[in-house]
Amino acid sequence: MNIQNKYSQLGSVELFTFTYCSAVTIGFMFLPYISQEEIRSAYFKVMAAVIPYLLLIFLWKKVVDKHQERDMFSLLKKNSKSWIYYPVILYFIGSCLYSLLFIVKSLIIIVQTYMMQDTEQWIIGIAFLITVGASALYGIHAISRMIVVIYFHEILLVITLIGFLFSEDFRWVNIPPYLGVDVLTFMKSSLSEVTRYGGIVTVFAFLPLVKKDVKVFKPIIISLLSIMATYVLICITTLGVFGYDQALTLLSPVTALMQTTTSPTGLFERLDLFFLTVWVMSFFKIGLIFIWFTATLCKQIVPVKPKREWIYITLVSSIIVILMLITPSITSFDWRPYNLNMLSVSLMVPFLILLYLKFRKKKGVGET
Amino acid sequence: MFSKLMKRKQGDPINELSFEEYLSTHTNIHDHLPRSTISVKQKCNEIFSESFDFSERDFHLLTGRSVYICYFSALISQPQLEESVIKPLLQHVDYINNTEHLGSILTVTKYEFVTDWKMAVESILDGNILLHVDQLDPIIVYLAEKQDRTPGDPTTEYQVYGAKFGFIEDSRKNVGIMRQFIKDPRLKSKGYEIGVVSKTQVAAVYLDQYCQPEVLDHLDQLLNSYHKEHLLSIGQLTKYISKHPNSIFPQATMSERPDLVALSLIQGKVALFIDNSTFCVVTPVTLMDLIETSEDHFFLVKWNLLFIRLLRLASLFIGTILPALYVALVAFQPELIPTTLTISVAQSRVQIPLPATAEAFLMMFALDVLIEASIRLPSFVGQTIGIVGGLVIGTAAVEAGIVSHTMVIVIAFTAIALFTMPSWEFVSSWRIIRYLLVGVSTLLGLYGLTLAVGFLLIHLCKLDSMNKPYMYPFAPFDGKRFKTFFLPKR
Fold this sequence. Notes:
Order of helices and strands of chain B: HHHEEHHEHEEHEEHHEHEEHHHHHHEEH
InterPro entries (chain B): Spore_Ger, UPF0353/GerABKA_families
Helix content of chain B: 40-55%
Strand content of chain B: 5-15%
CATH architecture of chain A: Up-down Bundle
Number of domains of chain A: 1
Keywords (chain B): Membrane, Transmembrane, Transmembrane helix
Number of domains of chain B: 3
Order of helices and strands of chain A: HHHHHHHHHHHHHH
Distance between the termini of chain A: 37 Å
Helix content of chain A: 55-70%
Structural class of chain B: alpha+beta
Family (chain B): Belongs to the GerABKA family.
Membrane topology (chain B): Multi-pass membrane protein
Subcellular location (chain B): Cell membrane; Membrane
Oligomer: heterodimer
């Protein structure tokens, strides 16, 4: 009874917003200072950190041109041994679960700190996971459309940040970079900047769903540069308003930034709380993206019919619920394990896979 | 996936209740009618037994040949029967030698030879006349005169600028009305007879080259596979053609205004008219379609249209969110409200024994009761109910200390905001959502409200009407359509 038409496939707008939203939330929330090892010139590093991802996308394009297929995971399956393929996918699944857990824990801290001080952490976490898990059951088309619909959130935030550049609190004297740091500190802090773009690994599962006639390279590149521009803007505004020493101690610099403002109309006394709802929505989006991505990866291991996909989504959500309940809450923001893993799963492993696919001889027709 | 839960299960055809099954208990439905009028009369009396409105007349011509006529008295034009059938028969007795000659005698627009019993019975039920001259083949004379009325002012969709007449209960005449609005040969209409028992006439009207062929094929497939025993209301049809009938949001809209339907047809939609209903179903629709009316295009200045559409979107948001937001702010995050307003709210709530949630539910429930009561009652009583409910009960409740002033303002504004929507069906959906959001806000405050809005959005993004996404042109994003929705071209 179903009819197929032009709406049944995803286009460039969906790809652009998906790429942007897959990466921006955590970076947005905790930029510029995390791990207590950042330096003043964070915005330079944010700019530099996008380069490896641009190279990654460029490499992916070359692989697509060679194999005439956009699905990286499917190409890997076809062109590699199963003892390589399955561990790699399992590693991706494990990393995604870890990222999801990290997302939920971060959300819990933000919500409990700023919105619901008296509510138990497990209530906040479970409410989030039930809602996001149920929403993920609607499928990738609904998820991508929803991301497009609430993209105005991101626009609103960027406009607000631009507004800060012209506020009385902003001081340009805080902005000039300070480069007199030792190499080790520089390298360690750069690690977190690179991982801020890590969410775009999910785009590799999204790309095969995009319409065949859509040119995908341009929207991804523009999206990555937009993320970079947003990050730079956050670094500059936070640094300009708070200065280096104060900003280093903040849990969520952007939220603190919003707290410094009062609405001129007096309608909202605490504008930061309004923005917290925007944060929650951002976590909602990234939660959806990661649950869907993890479920898609699970399908690579044990394929199921589309009508049975709910099993994986329920499974992933349930695992995160259990992990959330049995693991302690984040007490210190030492993100090194998370950052290292994110760097590996979003950049190094995809790079290796794509390099392998690029230089491996293309299989002939009928070859197994 | 989740959407599977929303989808319809196809019902099995109800064979035992079919018209053919019933008829076959009296006669073989594919048999030719006998040439003897006595046999035909006997069989007709058997089939239409215990039907007091079933009328028959038999008489003998001067040549001695007997004539049998039967029909349902309320469905035909009696004077025309006399003038166009009986009088010519009596005047031209000598020419009645074979059935073909009847065509030269009768002064009617259309007649047809009866092929079998099924056709005979169906034609009589349609309000036509079975005419049988002894030893000749029986014929059906098309003299049906259905009970209808002249188009009047639409009673449910008021307008300021639009045409002041609405559809009537006859689908054919409604299609005719549409032809007055769109004088184009591409305006096509497909007819269906739906319902095993009711045999309701349904007409699908569309503009060729404007409407997507896939939508038409899909509708055609759906309507041809309707196997239920009856189709009596437009609601039944709407639920049947909706892909997600269990969703809270309507995936088709109803209208009794020809100007609105004409606009919809030009937008490439399909209008479904059914007999005995003054409404037609328009499909596919999107969320944006449900907040526009054809009257919007009467504005002489395009900025008025932009303003009114933005106003409706804002009203939709306010009308759904406001009570839940109020509960969340008062119960969980009072620090978000400006200090002076917090003091006012707190003062107004000092004497109130109920928590903000109970207050909100009570007021929303009272409001919905009032709305429902004023709809069901005659208009003059309905207005009284509105005044009594709104002013007397509202003021009395505040003075009695049951609800606060602030809550009365919130609920009143909420109700008024949602009434800016042109579609009542759509408003009803959002009313239910309002209750759910208040419930979530009660449990988890602003955080829960945000999550619930997220879930609501993704549900809306999942919905589609005839495969057209419900959130179009927002998502999938269509910049051109998005722009023309707010600022139409000249």
